[in-house]
Amino acid sequence: MTTANDVLSALQSAFPGAIEDAKVDPERQLWATIKPDKIVDVCKYLRDNHNFDHYSGAAGVDKINEGLFEVTELLASHGAHQVVALLKVKTPRDNPSVKSLTGLFWNANWYEREIWEMLGINFEDHPELYPLLLSDELVGVWPWRKDYKGYPDYTTAERAIERINSEGYMEYHIPPTEAEIEAGTVPVERPKYPSLREREEMEIKGESEMILHLGPQHAVVPGPFLLDLLVDGERVKKAFLDVGYIHKGIEKIMENRTYVQGIPITDRLCYMAALTNNEAYCGSVERLLGIEAPERAQYIRMILEELSRIQSHLLGTGEFLTLIGSAVFCPFLYMIIDREDVLTCIESVTGARINHSFVRFGGVRNDLPDGFKDMTLDVLKKVRQKTEEYKELFLSDSIYNKRMEGVGVLSPSEARRLGVSGPPLRASDTPYDMRREDPYLLYKEMDFDVITRKEGDSKARIEVRLDEIVESCYIIEQCLDQIPSGPIQEKLPKRIKPDPGEAYYRVEDHRGEMGFFVVSDGSDKPVKVKARGPVYAYFQALPPLLEGTYIADVVAIAGSMDACTSEVDR
Amino acid sequence: MGISDVIPLPVVVDEELEKWTIWGKPLTDVWFTTTEKIHEIIEMGPIKNVLNWGRKNSLWFLMQPMGCCGVEMLVFGCPPYDCDRFGIFPRATPRQVDVMIISGYITRKYLPAIKNLWEQIPEPKWVMAIGECAISGGPFYDSYNIINNTGRFFPIDVYVPGCPPRPEKFIEGFRGLQEKIKQREDKRGY
Amino acid sequence: MVLSAITEFAAQEPKLYAFIIGLVGAAILASVINVGAMAVVWLERKVMGDLQARYGPNRVGGRWGILQLGADAIKLFTKEDIIPRGADKPVYVWAPIVASATTMLVAGAIPFGAVIIDGKEIPLVVANMDISALYVEAVLSLMAISAFMAGWSSNNKYSMLGAFRGVARMISYEVPMGVCVISVAIMAHSLNLVEIVQAQSIWFAVAQPLGFIIFTIALITDLGRMPFDQTEAEEEIIAGYNTEYSGIRFGLLYFQEYNSMLLGAILLVLLYLGGWNGPVIPVISFISPMIWFFMKLLIVLVALIWIRVSLLRFRIDQVTDLGWKVMLPLSMVNLAWAVAVGLYFA
Questions:
Q1: Which ipTM value was assigned to this complex?
Q2: Which of A40, A45, A52, A47 is CA-nearest to residue A99?
Q3: CB contact under 8 A, C52 and A333
Q4: Residues A124-179: pLDDT tens digits?
Q5: I need a surface site. Which of A5, A141, A408, C321 has the fewest CB within 10 A?
Q6: Are C333 and C185 in contact, with CB atoms under 8 Å apart?
Q7: Taking the domain B58-182, which CATH number applies?
Q8: Residues in chain B within 8 Å Cβ distance of C87
Q9: Which CATH number do you get for residue A97?
């Protein structure tokens, strides 16, 4: 098995002089600073010779004291080894520019676009450097820069101006306020780029083609996003995706809160996976602090995260069924009833239904209540039985099979290229699960299977989710059997000030690989928090998947991905 | 204008008619009805109570999940909570709804779209702000992209606090709106 | 006294008398069918609630929620009426009217049961035509026209897609449905619905099981209910052809769906389930056919609702595939069967 040290020595011998202050910390993570002109070559070398075929994301850090921007590229492998490479590239603050990795990794596109619109770092050779999350009036403001003047006072638009556009329809526009102009948050010069509408209209070729807008408000979308389909009759020729309708700037907000205050914000990152988001954030801060939670706390975390996975999968599957059926489809409502039972279990511990803020640095907030074990075992028994029933029901439903088989097929190589993770990747015959791949908590000691399917279509994705519910039940039962007594919280000072440094920690979210990259400068607030979410990756992969399908299949494909818009937009 | 101006009738009839009243107003005032006159009558009389009874018991809302509250909105329509009991259920198109639920963060990018949705809803219509984000920005009050004064853009009748509020709170919010409609105290004056 | 006066009047002015009677009949018919549709909406919401482990309306009008429909109607009547700027106004305005007119036209020719007076069975039908089965079948297909009018005139992309889907579906299912009706007519030696019912000493559902299944599926398709509701697939094209409709215009379109559901269920009962035939119940022999008729109707309606909540939606190309490649050949087989059986017993 390749270790991080092997990779490091290979890199150092292949690119002498290009690698600066490299280190391995902890054992599976390789940190290195690469000369800006060598980054593409290094990544290509890693991809071709060391199986780093999983581009996991990129984070831009504004080091204003050093007058530098740092872009950190995260590379990993789809199961060949467990090393994560975090490669940093430095670029001066005035006229920042970095080489783009889009030529090597298809899915680098969105990550780089985001860094460009937020920090203003130019990516050379990027094919479409258009804004992704921000509205047009905020482009050029570079809100994530440390010297951005808009924080925290000039945050809201005072009024929306109504005006009639060229097509005769009323539209609303939010001009900058006087305060904003005075404060200098309005950019002098805005970048030039074609708008989404113009880009779409360029693609219309024939008389019979039209653009069908699904969103931002539409029954198919789990949150606001815009899915524009170029359709010819019932066939989709091309799909365009516009996200950012609920971009809240979570990462910027977390930079302005203390470490503990960041935990409730991570809840709202993705409301279906609040506990795993907590876990990912707390895990990375624990790495910065160099502590680890007591054993009992780790068990409690595992129990709750798996319960949370069950409720998320139940809702995800149910919601999906409403998309290919209708909102009155009975099994959906039965799944919601099951989910309510699971939520009752979670609520008895955390006190909340959705946003828990339960996981703490070095522990958890409170202990399991009396009678939790019996209640949970009862619920799990019921859930497992019902899940088997659902599987049987769907397998014998010919309309279900007709709608789902061979729809939205992702071949294993294509799934890896598009960068998806979690159930969609596992449905494409790739056993890639963070609980096995990068074991966190005590998953090493647990006995469970990583569910995979060969087909890679919508049906396989749903089957993987339903099977994972059963698997999660099994894990929880093991945890409840083995859980020791003891403390649930490490002793920590009231004011948490980690030493300067960086940490990356990834967990298996309900939807895939969730990672938190936290940079500290020794103060009580993080310099940079980057959330690498799984749904972001799905969304990027959605438009190529939708090409050539029927309009009705768009729903089946998008739904089977189990999206969560909040996490994409952050 | 009297009736004798239009139909050849003795003036006595006209004088007699002027004495007649309907809900405290002379009948001749409303004899030749215009739309405004009809509205006036409806506004005064018990018909309005009947109309408002119908309206308050048939509040269809726009299916528009926006954030954490969107999940609870979904559950709100499902078995344990069952909004259909009160005649409340979701529709997908703004043309056929009465209530818009703002169930999350409104950003600069989304505001024009949500304003458009609001304009597309036919009168009479109401809007509810559900969750902290919709009321005041919630935990994201200081973000560069969040509108935290929603009340400026929409005539919000009911605020339901919580992050997110439980589905029971949704029911409470709708009951509050029903009560407001019944008492004719809603912001837009139905 | 009054009766004799009317008879006298009828003798003197037969044309005027027929006209007045027609008007009165139409008024009664319209109210009966609309009240029936309201009952169907209520039934659907309650039965659907039961199937989904919830209650359904239970606050407005007592614990059975009987006045819920009244509240909905009041609200829809007093909603603002929006006609979109780009809409084709006359067509847009006429589409809901055409839709409700269609159901009224169908209702005129359908017998709503029968009563027994002096041992004689009198069917309750407004227009007892010789070709009523054919007529009903023909007028039912007008429903797709009204949907197309609504969808096309709205100047909305979702509406237009819904309208196209509706027409594609109608064309592929009207043929097997027609063939089924012909098979029934061959077996009953008549196109008159009343005579078809009277000919069913054995239910045609038993005599032509294949035809019964095909007709049921084609009927659900015609009504646009799950699993064939592609015209208004909420999750794909918002609300399909009625996306832009609001207020009472939407109310009419919405109501028409339930009107036609009621009529479709009645048609199914008449053609295949023996109509009002059944053993005479001794004490209340006067309305015993009505009781049988309503029991059968209720079962069919509940079955339709049950199907709606337990099946997923087909894709539009799968629907037309099914129509042309499976339903049409099978309906031909059924026709051959009906002819063979008819010849054998003749």
A1: 0.85
A2: A40
A3: yes
A4: 888 888 888 888 777 877 888 888 776 555 545 455 566 677 766 666 666 666 66
A5: A5
A6: no
A7: 3.40.50.12280
A8: none
A9: 3.30.460.80
